[in-house]
Amino acid sequence: MNFPMRLFRRRPKVSPLPPEEEWTWYAEFDRRRISLKTPNEKAAQRSFERLKKAWLKRNLARLEGRLPTKKLGDFSREFLEWSQETKRHFTYLTDKQAFRKALEYFGSQTKLTSITAYQVDKWLAKMGQEVQRVSANTWFRHFKAAMAKAIEWGYLKKSPCQSVKQLKTDESLPRYLTREEYHRLQAAETVPAFRRLWEIYLRTGRRRGEILRLTAEDIDWKGLAIRIRLKGGRSQRLPITPETATLFRQIPVQVGRLFPWTPNHVTHHFIKTAKAAGVSCRLHDLRHTYGSWMIQAGVDLKVVSNLMGHKNTRTTEIYAYLNDAQLAQAQGKLKIGEE
Q1: What percent of the chain is modeled with pLDDT above 70?
Q2: What DSSP designation does 238 have?
Q3: Which residues contact 207 (CB under 8 A, 6 or more apart)?
Q4: Fewer Cβ within 10 Å of end Cβ, the chain: N or C?
Q5: Cα(261)–Cα(198) distance, integer angstroms
């Protein structure tokens, strides 16, 4: 059995043709192509050698018809190295956090083949008691994806996560801020750069990572639009208002990332600001606020869905609810006993 591998480079799909130093290097193993995300040949060669070493080790066991003995700690290092080389930085950080939680529970010396669905179920339930269930489910999904990769690499025949179901989450209506609460939040923010960031989140309705991934090159000043990078390498062109464009012009960055902070740092800073303002909310609630305010302003559901980057309008329908004042106004229109 043969496992061909090669290192090569390709130019990005742009026009005019970029100089050769901007071409991206790729590694290919048994017809599976991986972007090394660098134009530097030496850096690409180092990444390729690391990936090749892991690839040969896994497939040697496959050639011999056996499952290699792999401990969770060793697999986590191998997987995270691969994740860092091939995935977006924010996805890699979530992979890293998921394995930190898994190692705390299972132990680094536990063999992958000894982890059962029952143990994974217990681990997920324990996380759901310690943190928000949404976070627990996120880490579980990343761990489940890693176990699927372990099967692909020849370490497992069946994933212990396959039959485990995610924790049920609160299906109550999403929290959105009133205008008074939002003004209190902005008044409590003492750092101008973060005050500007909160307004950008509210004016665009985008997710935390989508805004933090923005670069100066993603802004179309003439067409008043920004490029949002989505999962799977996809992107979306999002129109912005002149007011939002003014916010982006206030950022002094000329090249590269607009915002220097990690997602966790931004979230923790927001929580601190919300507490100082006396407003009980999360950073993601600014996205909920955008969707709710747009619907209440009479914007069509399909338009809101497209602006928020939802795959279908069913997701957007959670914002199509009315506040108490609107409900009371609607009740007042009911006339009984009157012609």
Answers
A1: 83
A2: E
A3: 284, 287, 309
A4: C
A5: 14
Average pLDDT over residues 223-250: 90
The number of residues making up the chain comes to 339
Q: For the segment 95-122, what is each residue's pLDDT rounded down to a tens digit?
A: 999 999 999 999 999 999 999 999 999 9
pTM over 0.85: no
Give CA–CA dist 97/19, Å, rounded: 38
Q: Which residue would you say has higher pLDDT here, 29 or 297?
A: 297
pLDDT tens for each residue of 44-69: 888 888 877 776 666 655 544 555 67
Q: What are phi and psi of 92, to 5 degrees?
A: -60, -40
Helix (H, G, I), strand (E, B), or coil: what is residue 337? coil
Residue 89 dihedral angles phi and psi, to the nearest 5°: -60, -40
Ordered strands of the 225-229 beta sheet: 219-220, 225-229, 235-239
Query: Percent of the chain beyond pLDDT 90?
Result: 52
Enumerate residues 6+ apart whose C-beta is below 8 A from 91. Answer: 83
Question: In the CATH scheme, what architecture does the domain 67-169 have?
Answer: Orthogonal Bundle (1.10)
DSSP-based three-state secondary structure for 27:
strand
Q: Concatenated DSSP letters for 143-203?
A: HHHHHHHHHHTTS-SS-TTTTPPPPP---SPPP---HHHHHHHHHH---HHHHHHHHHHHH
Alpha helices in the chain (DSSP H): 41-63, 72-86, 89-106, 117-130, 133-152, 179-188, 192-204, 208-212, 242-249, 263-277, 285-296, 301-308, 313-316, 324-332
Cα 208 to Cα 30, 145, 204, 265: the distances in Å are 36, 22, 11, 11
> 179-327: which CATH topology?
hpI Integrase; Chain A (1.10.443)
pLDDT in tens, 273-321: 999 999 999 999 999 999 989 988 888 889 999 899 888 888 788 777 6
